[in-house]
Amino acid sequence: MIDLLAWVLATPFLLLLTYLLVELTAGLARLAPRDHDTPPAHMVLLIPAHDEAASIAETVRGLAAASPTAHILVVADNCSDNTAERARAAGAEAIERNDRERRGKGFALAFGRDHLAGAPPDAVIVVDADCRMDAGSAERLAAAALISGAPVQASNLLASPPGVSPLVSISNFAMLVKNVVRARGLLRIGGGALLFGTGMAFPWPLFARLPLASANAVEDLELGLRLAREGIKVGFDDGARVTSPAASLASSRGQRSRWEHGFLDTARRQAGPLLGAARRRRSRHLAALGAHLLVPPLALLLFAAALDLALVTGLALSGADSRPAMLLLVLLALVALALLAAWWREARALLPARDLLRAPLYLLWKLPVYLAFFTRRQTGWNRTGRD
What interhelical angle do 219-229 and 284-294 show, nearest 10? Predict the structure, then answer.
């Protein structure tokens, strides 16, 4: 009986860690460069903005410099400041939306789409109001979306100034693992990626029919899964990059709560149905997405797996089969090695080695975010504080 208990405790984490390891390993190598010989499309950078007067002009100027052929449309959504006026002064087109009952990014995007419908562009790229894009990234994304007829997601990273808290640097690295390394792995395993909310390019015929008007805190995740159920695979271009400033340590927990509570809630509702649909349709794409949803956020998984290892090891010391503990230990070590390989290849400049040693503190710092999922779950959109 004690042997059975050890296997029952270990098996879920053995499966989750195995899939995570496969995804990480598959995502270590960069994607092959895409062919972008298509002439520049008539594209629009669509920016939903809520009370962004302090930074919207800088955002518009930065995006215009990186994508000089793009038309920039700012949707000043339920603003109590002069976001629209400052966006226009910086060279963007700005429209204003006021609807106190229907709040959220999805409603702002739908409002912007309605405005564009009279003279639609070839492609629309959604960019958050605090983001910057590398030069040429918008053109790459628009061309890829037009060629494939499907959405294409850019690498979405967080950036911090020198001297930032080590915990913020580790958080930025965790974002890189999720939005670059695991995104590449997911693409290679299942043929399609997920949407991250910014740096998303859509061909207009698809964008025109999407159900955008939503107050969901993770409307991008839900949208990507909806497209997958329709048989549309989201592309991923790791050579196109969009960055946004990381929140301060004081604001990071609230930012992470919105992202990770939304992910956990979506996974709770959709992972099982996706895997069921994958079995019925024999779809590798849906199977990969369902398995991806089952893997909790990295910090939560590693914390829970370490706790599980301690329990199973205690059972082994009490006379139970030692193989579950040994397998868990080996898999945790392999995942740690894969994460180190990802750091070495992608993030040495982002995260100094001395800060990497504080990863256990980061796991403890994140613990209240996950406990709050069961006590004070965040379901709505919130604006991250700016420094």
Answer: 150
Q: Which residues pair with 125 in a beta bridge?
A: 45, 201
Contact 134, 63 (CB under 8 A): no
| Tokens read off for 247 | 């929140």
Contact 120, 204 (CB under 8 A): yes
Report the C-alpha gap between 182 and 197 in whole angstroms: 16
Short-list 235, 226, 308, 311, CA closest to 274: 226
What is the tally of helices (H) and strands (E) in the chain?
A: 15, 8
| Pairwise CA distance, residues 276 & 280, whole Å | 6
* H/E stretch holding 113: helix 105-116
62 burial (CB, 10 Å; 0-12 / 13-18 / 19+) is middle
Q: What's the predicted TM-score (pTM) here?
A: 0.91
- Condensed to tens digits (0 to 9), the pLDDT of residues 25-45 reads 999 999 988 766 666 679 999
Least-confidence region, from 145-154, 199-208, 240-249: 240-249
When pLDDT is averaged across residues 190-213 and rounded to a whole number, the result is 94
